[in-house]
Amino acid sequence: MIRQFSFVLAAVISTAHTQGASFEETSFGIVSFEGDVLPILNSYCVMCHLPGVEQGGLSLYPDAWSRLVGNPSVQSSLLRVDPGSPDSSYLYLKLIGTGESVGGSGLQMPFQQPSLDPDQIETIRLWIEQGAKQN
Amino acid sequence: MGEKHQGITRRQILAGAGALSVGAITLRTSRAQSSVKWDHETDILVVGSGVGGASAAITAHENGDAVMVLEKAPITGGTSAKSAGVLWIPDNFTLREKGIEDAKEDCLKYMARYSYPEHFNPADPQLGLAGGQFELLEAFYDNASKAADSLRQSGALKIAEWRMFHLDRSAPDYLDQVAENKVPAGRALGPLKKDGTMGGGVDLMMQLGAAVKQRGIGLLTNHRARRLILNPAGRAVGLEVESGGTVVAMRARKAVIFASGGYAHNPEFVSMYQANRLWGACAMPWSTGDFINIAGAAGARMGIMSSAWRTQILLEDALRSSKLATGVFFPPGDSMILVNRYGVRVVNENRNYNDRTEVHGIYDPSRAEFPNQLLFMIYDQRSAEAFAGVYPIPTDPGDTAHVLKGDSLQGLAARIDQRLSEIAPRTGGVSLVPSFAGHLKKTIDRFNGFARSGKDQDFQRGQAAYDSEWHQVFSPMRTDSGWPPNDGPNITMHPIRDEGPYYAIIFAAGALDTCGGPAIDASARVLDTEDQPIPGLYGAGNCIASPSGEAYWGAGHTLGLALTFGFIAANAAHHEPRNNA
Questions:
Q1: pLDDT under 50 in chain B at which residues?
Q2: Residues forming beta bridges with residue B339, ordered by sequence position
Q3: pLDDT of B174-205, one tens digit each?
Q4: How far apart are the C-alpha atoms of B461 and B177, rounded to whole Å?
Q5: Interface predicted TM-score of the whole assembly (ipTM), two decimals
């Protein structure tokens, strides 16, 4: 027996998807955290950086921005994201594979997956360079 | 992230569900009462959004069934998204395009020989296997390429032969060297990225996730299946689902398909069902074996429970957390060996991760111990520098968090024993025997002879195509280290230097995920204690008893099985009558 408002719910959730957390294709253009950076993190990074699975002491869920920006990395003396300065941001250096050159450890991210595409890495670099805003 | 749904917010859903749950929350058993008030209904409910769940959901949709996918985690993709994204598919389209026949009779012999060597009988019509075991292998062979082709043809998957990166060769199976394997390479498929290059697990799940979305299939994260709802006839007709503290009743008019992962992160289940200590796993943290109790409450019988997709892991990582980013799929280096606490080699270091890890579980009844509980990867300065940066050898060959260093074999033994002493309360007191360094010297001398002759007379390292070809993939030698390339007769072995320093990394037994649980039949129907299908209940992937037993047939084995049995389940469920809830 179905209550009438169940049909309403059914109609809505029959097309419901999570956004951001699902494996959707990233979009490009204006560099924004929500629109450009977060989908990359959610697709390629979050599965190893979750509460209880904080590799490198980093959890990217539920609030990736505040865990990244201005926060010190645990594997180096650098900030995870140093607004305006990609080359001193440990996140960026780990993605291009030079984390150990700045006193970090471990290997290039994503771990044991193909590296990010150059345009994805460039998206993150530009976002940091533009101030790593929570936009 | 995970809070916002397309069209509505998760908060809005739960706000609605909170009101709706008043009737449903009264359910206390898996038996439906006439008073059940359904909060949502669909034809097929799929639990889990990894490759098994995605395959089932997309297939069901292609069949014209209405589908809803429930995911306990805040993100989709499951452990499949952490994998390499490879699918082991016999008789696949790339083999056919190349004119390679992967005949059913031969492939079944390979699978049966590898999965059940203790029963294998090629002269028997069922190859010596029990009926259910044989039928599962047969179902896999009969449906694997159909599943891949169906998903390709529907546009859900863009896949190609998975080739070995820079080697650009077909991938050898994990037991390529046996006579029963007539197609020892080329059964692995992988996802293509937009630019046509080969992708990984993220790319595979991105493709399938996009296909789910494009079809308008409902997918809810942060929704945990709590229990099955059965009608008075014992048919699975729905699920109790919890999200954010609210419980709703979801009706499945045809079937419920579970593809919800193994139990690697349920310490109680691991302790109960794994025969040997499992120190950690790479599975997503939500792999807690929920289906075992859910199906058990519905009368399911369990199949094999002790199986897991095994890999060695770094003990130091596991001591920090049993939830791991990765395992040691291939110990890198050529002047490298694995030894136990006696300083003795116990395994071909280049065997595949699943089989190699089994050696940790060997019990010595004379000494009443597991002599290989921990193994020590020993290597010299050559491997430390020539393979620097190849996990788990660090770029800087120093005494880092997981690397122990000694200037001599005696010094290395002392360093290992010091560390073992520090962690003894957590390892059952594993220590090196006093004669470890002396034994290790003899072991190295013997190994060096094998390296010079090219023949490992103890464990045949480098003899199978798997060993040497995957060595080149997983253990690439740096060109900038100054060490000469291995020009010996066996590329997987090089003499270990007579002088230090020497290094050690401690390995323990781990897993990608477990693969034990309720038994299914060849239609992926979950069986009850009378070996009869529980109507309307299906299983695929790591949440059910592995259709391959303990064997790992080749790269992509786990995902190939999950994809195929998800496909089988959806097709069988399509023919279920619409139930009377």
A1: 1-29, 33
A2: B345, B376
A3: 999 999 999 999 999 999 998 899 999 999 99
A4: 12
A5: 0.71
Please, what is the end-to-end C-alpha distance for chain B in angstroms? 35
For residue A110, list chain B residues with Cβ-Cβ distance below 8 A: 200, 202
- Taking CA–CA distances from B324, the nearest residue in chain A reads A53
Q: Please list the residues that pair with A89 across neighbouring strands.
A: A79
Q: Helix H segments across A1-135? A: 4-13, 38-44, 64-68, 90-96, 118-129
Give the β-pairing of A53-54 and A49-50. Answer: antiparallel
Q: How far apart are CA B138 and CA A104, in angstroms?
A: 50
Residue A29 has a pLDDT of: 56
> To probe the interface with B, which of A47, A54, A95 has the most B CB atoms within 10 Å?
A47
- Tally of structural domains, chain A: 1
Domain residues for the domain of A81 are 2-129
Angle at B332 between CA B331 and CA B336, to 5 degrees: 85
Residue A72: in which H helix or E strand, if any?
none
Q: pTM for this one?
A: 0.90
Q: A118: distance to nearest CA of chain B, Å?
A: 12
Residue keyed to tokens 């008073």: B35
Cβ separation A5–B20 shorter than 8 A = yes
Burial degree of B580 (CB within 10 A; 0-12, 13-18, 19+): exposed
B475-479 CB contacts, 8 Å cutoff, 24+ apart: B475/B330, B475/B331, B475/B332, B475/B333, B475/B334, B475/B387, B475/B390, B476/B166, B476/B387, B476/B390, B477/B334, B477/B386, B477/B387, B478/B385, B478/B386, B478/B387, B478/B388, B478/B389
Q: Encoding tokens for residue B109?
A: 């012999």
Q: Nearest-5° angle of CA B403, CA A108, CA B49?
A: 105
Helix (H, G, I), strand (E, B) or coil at B364: strand
Give the pLDDT of residue A16.
35
Both tokens of B258, joined, read 């579970």
**Contact flag B17-A9 (C-beta cutoff 8 Å):** yes
Residues 384-413 of B with CB under 8 A from A: 389, 391, 394-396, 400-401
Residues on chain B touching A1 (C-beta within 8 angstroms):
36-38
Chain B 501-540, residues with CB within 8 Å of chain A CB atoms: none
Letter string b/e over residues B11-20, b meaning 16 or more CB atoms within 10 A of that residue's CB: ebbbebbeeb
Note the pLDDT tens digit of each residue in B320-335: 999 998 999 999 999 9
Residues of A with CB under 8 A from a CB of B: 1-3, 5-6, 8-10, 12-25, 38, 42-44, 46-48, 50, 52-53, 55, 61-62, 64, 100, 105, 107, 110-114, 117
Evaluate whether residue A134 is within a structural domain.
no
Report yes or no on A86 lying in a domain. Answer: yes
Residue A6 has pLDDT above 60, yes or no: no
